[in-house]
Amino acid sequence: MTSEPTVQEGGCRCGRVRFRISAKALITSACHCTGCQRMTASAFSLSTFYPTNGFEVTMGEPAIGGLHGALRHFFCPHCMSWMFTRPPAMDEMVNVRSTLLDDVRSYHPFIETYTSERLPWARTPAVHSFERFPVPEQFPALLAEFASRSD
Fold first, then answer.
1. Does 151 fall in a domain?
2. I need a surface site. Which of 7, 64, 78, 112 has the fewest CB within 10 A?
3. Please, which pLDDT band fits residue 87 given cuts at 50, 70 and 90?
4. Does some domain include residue 3?
5. Total structural domains in the chain?
6. What mean pLDDT, rounded, does the chain reach?
7. DSSP track, 27-64
8. Distance separating alpha carbons of residues 96 and 24, to the nearest angstrom
9. Contact 59, 18 (CB under 8 A)
């Protein structure tokens, strides 16, 4: 997302749950893991990490779905759209399903994860690919590189 507006809005498919983002994206990604494939009924999930303090639900009340474990996936309770995820031990970030933003025309994944589980035909334009997730030590450099490309 190269030229993000200051404020972005989005919502679920039926429109009963809406959210607002007032922070710059930290990083964009495509995840090829089988869990994301099953939750999206697609080849991968597309997401953008934002600082938690720049994300707010403005209408409706999302419900926890998915596996109901430490990784908290939030869905619209009516249309069941997978909206965002709050990763464990990362309270400062929220992982928003990018295609739920009202304007996603400039979206592209910067990293792709779990390529070890990628469907043979599924390709993305991601700059960096990882067989699983990047190791924690790689994140500062990835975030810095993404920020330098999206300014």
1. no
2. 7
3. confident
4. no
5. 1
6. 91
7. EEEEE--HHHHHHHTSS-EEEEEEEGGGEEEEES--EE
8. 12
9. yes
Global pTM?
0.89
Supply 99's token pair: 């295609």
Per the domain annotation, does 137 fall within a domain?
yes
Strand order in the sheet with 72-75: 63-65, 72-75, 82-86, 93-97, 45-51, 27-31, 111-113, 128-129
Residue type, 79: C
Q: What is the total residue count of the chain?
A: 151
Give the C-alpha separation, 77 to 43, whole Å: 24
Question: Which residues face 20 on adjacent strands?
Answer: 9, 56
pLDDT score, position 150: 63
Domain housing 22: 8-146
Half-sphere exposure of 10 (CA within 13 A, CB side): 23
Reported as a single tens digit per residue, the pLDDT across 21-55 is 999 999 999 999 999 999 999 999 999 999 999 99
Any long-range contacts for 119-122 (C-beta under 8 Å, 24+ apart)?
119/32, 119/37, 119/43, 121/43, 122/32, 122/43, 122/44
In this structure, is residue 93 part of a structural domain? yes
Q: By percentage, how much of the chain surpasses pLDDT 70?
A: 95
pLDDT of 90-112, one tens digit each? 778 999 999 999 999 889 999 99
